[in-house]
Write a sequence for this structure.
């Protein structure tokens, strides 16, 4: 199903712009209009239409939109515009691929033979003895901050439920859901220099894209083990995690502090509460997810969804699992392109 949204003819009035910015957006709208008549042989991936919308929606939603405008102004022809959009499309493929190959990493709490506690307070005190935050302890600290539950659904973490008498009583008394949860990074490890698993040239490209989009050096801010800081992580049930990583779920900040509207494909999020509020019992030692980081993630999601990129990549990943032979008429271009990018990432 095509959930893409055509670029509006004019920029929203709320977006500050200048002549260069307006000219950049006009080029995106013009490319969108020409897309149906631009015959590319062989067919390319992503399509010209998706490329035009990626660039246009970045100008609308990216915090670093003026960086995007400058990059567009440097493009001398359609081919350079398409290549510029393709770099961001490749980043979306990286996110999908990372979500697909996610290795579930559990902390010392993630086994039923681990330490047991009578109260939530005792469990948090035990976790706080583990410092500093690193890849191993990030889940435990996020769980402690998020009260041992998914911040969207409110479902109690499965292991914590079994290891904590207070949570066990609470679940039974209130008939709460229990799920395995995971620590979720707003910006994944491959966006920093210290802990990515991508080939150096791909990792550098993805960091550049994120920094350009954000408007400042996110990769430096989250360098090394800082990628696991609590401002960059949250606790989500496994099925919610998959939606977040594949850009199908995001959080839109509302007027109340640390309160967000849960956004995404209506069919995917219909069972979730429309509004969530993040809380912590210890803002100093257990800080909440950064509204700024969540805002950048939300902007990426809107670009990916409104441009049609997520539909295209999602279908390609599905086809990669199901089909054994590519079509000879070029209709498998998206699937082939995603497969090639994933193969290069795996080398």
């Amino acid at each position: 199903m095509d959930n893409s949204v055509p670029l509006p003819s004019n920029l929203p009035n709320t977006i500050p712009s200048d002549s260069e910015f307006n000219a950049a957006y006009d080029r995106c709208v013009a490319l969108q209009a020409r897309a149906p008549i631009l015959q590319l042989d062989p067919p390319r991936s992503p399509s010209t239409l998706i490329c035009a919308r990626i660039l246009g929606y970045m100008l609308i939603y990216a915090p670093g939109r003026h960086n995007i405008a400058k990059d567009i102004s440097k493009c001398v022809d359609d081919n350079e515009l398409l290549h510029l959009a393709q770099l961001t499309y490749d980043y979306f493929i990286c996110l999908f691929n990372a979500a697909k190959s996610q290795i579930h990493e559990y902390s010392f709490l993630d086994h039923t033979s681990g330490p047991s506690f009578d109260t939530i307070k005792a469990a948090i005190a035990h976790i706080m003895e583990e410092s500093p935050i690193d890849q191993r302890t990030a889940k435990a600290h996020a769980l402690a901050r998020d009260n041992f539950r998914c911040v969207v659904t409110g479902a109690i973490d499965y292991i914590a439920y079994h290891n904590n008498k207070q949570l066990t009583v609470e679940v039974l008394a209130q008939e709460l859901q229990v799920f395995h949860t995971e620590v979720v990074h707003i910006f994944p490890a491959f966006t920093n220099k210290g802990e990515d698993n991508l080939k150096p040239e791909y990792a550098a490209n993805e960091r550049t894209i994120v920094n350009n989009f954000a408007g400042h050096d996110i990769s430096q801010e989250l360098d090394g083990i800082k990628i696991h800081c609590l401002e960059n992580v949250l606790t989500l049930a496994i099925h919610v995690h998959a939606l977040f990583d594949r850009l199908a779920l995001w959080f839109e900040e509302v007027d109340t502090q640390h309160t967000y509207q849960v956004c995404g494909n209506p069919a995917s999020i219909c069972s979730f509460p429309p509004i969530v509020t993040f809380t912590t019992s210890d803002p100093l030692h257990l800080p909440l997810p950064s509204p700024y980081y969540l805002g950048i993630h939300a902007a990426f999601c809107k670009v990916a969804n409104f441009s049609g990129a997520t539909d295209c990549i999602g279908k390609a990943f599905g086809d990669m699992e199901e089909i054994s032979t590519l079509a000879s008429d070029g209709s498998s271009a998206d699937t082939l392109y995603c497969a090639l990018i994933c193969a290069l990432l795996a080398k």
